[in-house]
Amino acid sequence: MRFALWLIALFCVAVVSALFAGNNHGTVTLFWPPHRIDLSLNLVLLGLALLFVTLHLALRALSGLFSIPQQARRWRLSYKERSIYSGLLDTISHLVAGRFVRARKAAEVVVAIEDAMLASGDALPDAARLRTLAHLLAAESAHALQDRSLREAHFENALAEASSKEAGDLRDGVQLRAARWALEDRDSAGAVRWLEQLPVGTARRTIALRLRFKAARQARNTRVALDAARVLTKHRAFSEVAGAGIVRGLALEMLRNAHDAAQLSQAWASLELSERQQPDVALEAAQRLLGVQGDPAVARLWVLPLWESQGHSLTTDQRVRLTGILETSFGASEALPDAAWLARIEQAQMALPGDPLLQYLAGVMCVRLSLWGKAQALLKQSIPLLKDAGLKRRALLALADLAEHRMDTKAAAEAYKAAARA
């Protein structure tokens, strides 16, 4: 359709030109004394058109002739630019394929081309970024080859190039790479030093938080690792189950690293509410507090949420451990047990009269209150049902003590023998 329209337009122009030229009787007279020249108007118009075309072609030819050096320069720049991009692609390809020597050589070729272009004044618009990437890839290859001196040389060049305004956005990447190299070199202090130089926004990125977490774990800085793990879990860098497990493990490690009651209280205060409510964490904290001669009332306060939820979220081992912690806390003080805890234990034992752990704990409390008969009955009921050897042994020892108080030597001896067998 378009061709048909052009053909019709061409015919129209031809017809109009023929009508104009056929009926045009005008002449153009040129006076050049003493001469006179008469020319047809059609010939003059045709000559002017030919002159215009000739001048136009001549000017185009001269422009092309004078632009040959610029075209040659542009071609050289284009060739070098293609060589640079091809070299970067080769570097990345060799690097991901594990050919680190080839990757380093390809990156160094890119750097050499860039240096030559910079010396000749033909630098590309993104020259700083290209040089930064080339040096960084060369440093990565040298790091894989364990050539630290060459890695540091390329890294310093990359950092210097990244400091310029043209490549400022790459500086964070260079510093993150340096932190990762320091971690792989087991230099946690160096990794932390590089991470601390990052801007606030970059330091909150997932990759920076992962590096901070690894550096803290490597330096055994449990508190910093715990903070990083919390943020990573919120950012969904870990799955919910994995994140909870990591946080729980770090919380337990921080509690175990406390050497006195003050450090333990400080570590407990640094935990979040959800972490304090985890059974393993609360049990470990209370057990450690009793182990360092801390306040038994504080230990019972820490495990109070577990006592209120036992039977719902505690396993059998955790209930056994909770029972042992409460027993130890009640025996650590010479004063009578707390009335509130007495009421709690009594209510729980009455609600579940067949629970051996509650029977044992109630029996221990009766021993503390000098209720010998009730204590003996509860302990005897609990012993056949107790599955934990430690609790069973302590229950038998308590029966032996009660028998000695009654001056029943035979019963005490039998209890001691049973405890020894347990």
Automatic annotation (TrEMBL):
Keyword field contains Cell membrane: yes
Annotated membrane topology: Multi-pass membrane protein
Xref: InterPro entries: Heme_biosyn_assoc_TPR_pro, HemY_N
Localization terms from the record: Cell membrane; Membrane
Segments crossing the lipid bilayer: 42-68
Major place of residence: membrane
Keywords from the named record: Cell membrane, Membrane, Transmembrane, Transmembrane helix
Keyword Translocase in record: no
Domain HemY N-terminal stretches: 26-144
Protein name according to UniProt: Heme biosynthesis HemY N-terminal domain-containing protein
